[in-house]
Amino acid sequence: MKKVWIAIATMALMGTPAFASGHGHGEHGKHWGYEGDVGPAHWGQFSETCAKGKSQSPINIETAKVVKKGLPPIEIHYSDAKAVKGKVLNNGHTIKVETENGGYIVANGKRFDLLQFHFHSPSENQVDGKPYDMVAHFVHKAKDGQLAVIAVMFEKGKSNKALRKVWKKMPKEVGASAGYRGLDLNAILPQDRSYYHFTGSLTTPPCSENVEWFVLKHPVSIGAKQLSKFHKLYNGNVRPTNPLNGRVVEE
Ligand SMILES: [Zn+2]
User: Fold this and answer.
1) Residue 10 maps to a domain
2) pTM, rounded to two decimals
3) Strand 75-78 vs strand 85-90: parallel, antiparallel, or unpaired?
4) Start-to-end CA span in the chain (Å)
5) The dihedral sign for the CA sequence 147, 148, 153, 158
6) How far apart are the CA of 40 and the centre of ligand 1, in A?
7) What is the mean predicted confidence (pLDDT) over 59-70?
């Protein structure tokens, strides 16, 4: 009985958008990817929203058009390093770090719990037509199911100490994972957390909308060796940018 309950609970979790990425099958049981006939231009076969959605992510942030709103800081309440645990997973699309007891953020007066973070290289959102070398997407979920993503940009430079633990655990084989205990999430973020805000979607099928995006303006560094270690597994796991369709980017 207990086993059955766990199976149901697991299925329920996988059904939520944040966990659904990596489980979308299209016509003929094909799996989505970043190239060829399963690449981003063909994601409509996995989820109609990817092809027809009007507030899709990622976007190109044109700084000259950003509206200065004097938005309040995001309240970030990530847990102390020793309280955070979970696993580092190679899911075939990215390296994903699941965070148990990772803490939460409050944005626009609403609480979103941290579920996981993962990486794309180069970055998906661009600033004035240019991507950064890599991005981490911190995915959070509210009680009502709404998602909020904080994007942390990485620029090639000094080795990044805060990433070392994750990089050491990064599994080479698709489907493999490695458990970890203790992780300083706050140290991965830049000191200055000023941000661009807009509404968008998941950047992988099912491309679900109503996602709050917070792209931190200040990049952090990643070492050349660290970046090339990631590139051996994933290089170009990036969806092209999408039209704003009347959306406004605020800061
Ligand atoms: Zn992402």
Assistant:
1) no
2) 0.89
3) unpaired
4) 51
5) negative
6) 14
7) 97
**Among the options 25, 28, 93, 197, which is catalytic?**
93
Q: Domain range holding 125?
A: 47-233
| Distance from the alpha carbon of residue 203 to the mean position of ligand 1, in angstroms | 6
Q: Is residue 36 part of a domain?
A: no
Task: Answer whether residue 177 is part of any domain.
Answer: yes
- Residue 24 inside a domain? The answer is no
Mean pLDDT rounded to a whole number for the chain: 91
What span, in angstroms and rounded, lies between the C-alpha atoms of 141 and 156?
Answer: 30
Predicted confidence (pLDDT) at residue 66 exceeds the cutoff of 50: yes
C-alpha 246 to ligand 1 mean position (Å): 23
Asked if 93 is an active-site residue, the reply is: yes
What pLDDT, in 10s, does the model give residues 74-129? 999 999 999 999 999 999 999 999 999 999 999 989 999 999 999 999 999 999 99
CATH number for position 109: 3.10.200.10
Report which of 205, 202, 201 is spatially closest to residue 45, judged by C-alpha positions: 205
Q: For residue 170, what are the contacts with CB-CB under 8 A and spacing of at least 6?
A: 88, 90, 95, 178, 229, 230, 233
Q: What beta strand segments (E) does the chain contain?
A: 60-61, 75-78, 85-90, 95-98, 103-107, 110-120, 126-127, 134-141, 147-157, 177-181, 195-201, 209-216, 220-223
Residue 2 confidence (pLDDT) above 80:
no
